[in-house]
Amino acid sequence: MTRGPVYDNAVRLLASTDLVALCHWLGIDATAESIRVSEALPAATLYADLLVRAGPGRLEHVEFVRAPTGDLLDRMLEYRARILRREPGSLIRQHVLVLAEGRVPRALTDRLTPLDVHITYLRDENPATFLADPSLAPLATLARPAPGRHRTDLLRQALTVIATVPDPARRQELAGTAAVLAGIHLDALTIEQISQEARMSFTLEDTVAGRQLVARGEARGEARGRAHGQADLLAALLRRTFGDDPRIPDLAARLARRPHGEALDAVLGATTLDDLL
């Protein structure tokens, strides 16, 4: 679970440990026999967040995004083309799960409606749906709090539900995932305090994702400024190499989330912008 942003990885972890629960909530007709298809797509490697074979000739493709970016339409079209190239004749339904803020551009739904793309905003969902199932409870903090309630209350409720899981390893995994996803809206100190109040047998430092969250919380202000500067540098390098392409600002911003050396190597080693998408 090392590629991509930490929040996307957290939802990938939920999918990897209880595929059926997440699929059923998204309206995907999955069963225990459903299988995940390898997510690495050919050509310049493109990773789908979740690709499920839901039946003979039927594939369900799901992308988790913290906030929609301007290139989402192009990405969904490219995913679809790559999947069809590898699985010719398949029926594909696509989903976009928005974890935090922003709206999917209207052009995406207008142009892709015939291609069957379903948009779900976690912030509009009822948290009770997630709190009814420990496998989905980590998503509750991203749902819509009831009037007069706060996301801290949702995290407490999620950890209470997760505490009922009998297997200690599974319980810790779910609690760690809940802590990471809560970091979209809550600071690391608050998350740590609530976990201690819930008497969970873990701290954020017990999980790799949790350690990433703590480190990010401690250096949030500094990291924001550094990422801004890195994105500007990467954008300048891309324009110098490939000209003034409108995709460059969003691409540079995504690359800036990677470790500095990795992002720079990717830019310097690219022969076309498509190599970086």
Give an overview in words.
By secondary structure, the chain is α/β, with parallel strands linked by helices. It has helices at 6-17, 19-25, 72-86, 106-112, 127-131, 151-162, 168-182, 188-197, 208-218, 220-242, 248-255, 260-269, and strands at 35-36, 40-41, 46-47, 50-55, 58-65, 91-98, 117-121. The strands form 2 sheets. The protein has a 5-stranded mixed beta sheet with strand order 1-4-5-6-7. A two-stranded antiparallel sheet has the order 2-3. Helix 1 crosses helix 2 (19-25) and helix 10 (220-242) crosses helix 11. The two termini are 19 Å apart. Residues 216-225 have low confidence and may be disordered.
Summarize the structure.
This protein is an alpha/beta fold and 277 residues long. 49% of the residues lie in helices and 12% in strands. It folds into three domains: 1-124, Trna Endonuclease, Chain: A, domain 1 (3-Layer(aba) Sandwich); 130-218, no CATH class; 221-276.
Set down the secondary structure blueprint.
Blueprint: H1 6-17, H2 19-25, E1 35-36, E2 40-41, E3 46-47, E4 50-55, E5 58-65, H3 72-86, E6 91-98, H4 106-112, E7 117-121, H5 127-131, H6 151-162, H7 168-182, H8 188-197, H9 208-218, H10 220-242, H11 248-255, H12 260-269
Parallel strand pairs: 5-6, 6-7
Antiparallel strand pairs: 1-4, 2-3, 4-5
Helix pairs in contact: 1-2, 1-7, 6-7, 6-8, 10-11, 10-12
